[in-house]
Design brief:
12 strands; binds adenosine-5'-triphosphate; 11 helices; ICDH/IPMDH; binds magnesium ion; alpha/beta; 2 domains; 10-stranded mixed sheet; two-stranded antiparallel ribbon; Isopropylmalate Dehydrogenase
Length: 358
Amino acid sequence: MTTYRLGVLEGDGIGPEIVPASVLVVDAALAAAGGTAIDWVGLPLGRSAIDAYGEAVPESTLTALAGLDGWLLGPHDSAAYPEPHRSRLNPSGTIRKHFDLFANIRPAKSFDGADAVVAGTDLVIVRENTQGFYADRSTYKGSGEFMPTPDVAIAMGIITRAAVERIAIEAFELARRRRKQLTVVHKANVLKMTTGLFLDVCRELAAGYPDVAVDDFHIDAMTVHLVRRADDFDVIVTENMFGDILSDLAGEIAGSLGIAPSVNSSHERAMAQAAHGSAPDIAGQDVANPIAMILSSAMLLDWLGARHHDATLTEAAALIETGVADTVRAGTRTRDMGGTAGTRDFAQAVADTVKGLR
Ligand code: ATP
Ligand code: MG
C-alpha cells in the first residue's frame, strides 16, 4: 500500500471549515477505493501565518511544499491583510509563481440540484497560467503594465512557443482521456501576433493527435456559443486572461461559482483550489458550501493517480464526484443551495455516501 504525503493549507475565512471537510471526504474515498492512505501535512498560510511568522506564505511553507507533490489550498482574504502584505502578490499567486504551476484546469459540469443555465454542460477549460497580459502571473519580466506619464497606461502581453506547447499538450492529453474534442480560443484577427502564435502552435501540435477533433473560435464568438450550447464543448484551451473570463462564465453556466473546482499544476506538482473566495461574511458559522473544495481535492487525486499510475487514486476521485452528486440529489444541501445542512454535516454525508458506493 502506497502512502502519499499531501499538504493542507487552510487559509482564511471559510478555509478552516471547507478544507478539513475535504480532508474528511478524501480519507473516506481512499478507504473505500482500496486502502491507499494520505499523510496530511498541515502548513501555515494566510492571516494566521502573518500573525505567527510575519509572512502570508512563510519560507518554511514553501520549503515544505517543495517536498510534496500536491496540496489543498484554502482561499485567502488578502484584501484584509495589514500592509505591506496587502500590496504584495496574494498567497495563491506566490505559490503558483514559485512552483511555475502553468496549467489552470477548471471543469464546468452541471449536476442535479445545481441551477444550471445549460443542463448537460460537461466541459473543462485549460487555462495558460503564466503568460498573456496578466502582469502578476507572468514569469517574464518584460510582461506587465506601466505608466510613462500619469495620463498614459500601457499593458504588454507575452506568448511564447514553449509555453503554448506545454499547455496545449496538457489539453490534448486531457481531450484524449475524455470525448476527444478540443477547442482553441483566441483573438487572432486582432491580437494577430500573440494569440495568433497561440493558435498556430495548437494547430501544429494537432498533427500529433489525429484522434482529437480540433476547432477554434475567437473569444467574443466563444462567449456566444457557451451561453447557447455549452453542452457541445469538451476541452477548451486558451491563454491566461481569456481563460480567466471564460471559466467564470462556464462555471456559472454549469451551476454556480460556489461549486466550481480547480487545480493548478505543473508536471511535478498540483494544487487543489476552489474557484470561489474566502467568504468572510459567512466564516465560522458552519454554513459554507464545501463542494468546490471537495471537488478540487478529487481533481488532485485524479492528477496524482495519472502521475503515479495509481488506479486507486483515480477510483477515489470518481467516487467523490459521484458521492457529491448523489448527496445533493438526495436532498442534503448547504444553505446557498437551498438546504439546511451545515458544512460539517454535508461533508459527513458525502463521506457516508462514498463508503456506500463500494
Ligand atoms: P475573492 O476576491 O477572494 O475571489 P469574492 O469577492 O469573489 O472574493 P467570495 O469570497 O467568493 O467573494 O464570496 C462571494 C459571495 O459568495 C459571498 O457572499 C460569499 O458568502 C459567497 N460564497 C463564496 N463561497 C461560498 C461557499 N463555499 N459557500 C457559500 N457561500 C459562498
Ligand atoms: Mg472572486
